[in-house]
Amino acid sequence: LRDAVTTGEVLACLVVNGERLPRAREFCDGLRRAHPEVSTVVLNHNTDNTNVILSERCTVLCGEGFIRDELSGVPVRLGALSFYQVNTEGANLLYAEAARLAAVQPGETLLDLYCGAGTIGLSMARSCKKLIGVEIVPEAVESARENAAAMGVTHAEFFCADAGEAAQRLAESGLAPDVVVLDPPRKGCDAATIDAVARMAPSRIVMVSCNPATAARDAALLLERGYRTVSAAPVNLFPRTKHTEAVLLLVRDGASS
User: Please, which pLDDT band fits residue 76 given cuts at 50, 70 and 90?
Assistant: First the structure.
């Protein structure tokens, strides 16, 4: 289930090891009668023998196949496969802290790696000259483009690619972003991403991490490449668990903090 806090819409996603759901129309009608907040139902087809819950193939059973929400001023369309913070109110605090540390100025270029549906970068888009987002999930990239269009943001580009490979290509093309936002999965950034980001030499790197251990590891690698950590703050998106998000600001040696 995905719940949109600002609109109250709910997406229900059923995962099946097959091609169809028997009596799907009756199921959808009964579910929506009992729970009118369910605006769409999606069927995810996962026939792989792995521990991965969702496959990349979905069929819309009823509704539009997505729900609408808003995060840090960014209108968001969420499908079954879109990455989204599970704690929306906590995520608003997280993104506000990331924006404060990034301190993007007019005329600056912002590169958002692991951008998901583009929410972090788009929450800062009004302040920058150019926004570039990179994400490996095609549905999330499409959502990011739609979110930018809904906001009227015309100076943003979103690419579907692995973050490390994209960062390498961008570095080789001579891109020189002023600010880079890193929001990697729990495993953190790979070496290719760290090297490529350092080669682009942004004055500021904002790292958003759901795993403080890998954030510390990646910050140490960036330290070896000429960066220093000037701020680190935990944000508790997961109450009553041992987990926390962390937001770090790293600046290039010789750059002001």
Answer: confident
Strands 109-113 vs 179-182: parallel, antiparallel or unpaired: parallel
Confidence at residue 256, expressed as pLDDT on a 0 to 100 scale: 56
Q: Quick check: 101 and 249 in contact, CB under 8 A?
A: yes
Tokens 């097959």: give the residue: 18
Instruction: Say whether 210 is catalytic.
Output: yes
The closest alpha carbon to 118, from 102, 101, 97, 142, belongs to: 142
Q: How many CA atoms lie within 13 A of 36 on its CB side?
A: 0
Query: Could you say which of 28, 115, 189, 210 is catalytic?
Result: 210
Amino acid sitting at position 107: G
What would you report as the CA-atom Rg of the chain, rounded to the nearest whole angstrom? 19
Global pTM?
Answer: 0.81
- CA dihedral (209, 213, 215, 216) in degrees, to 10, reads 150
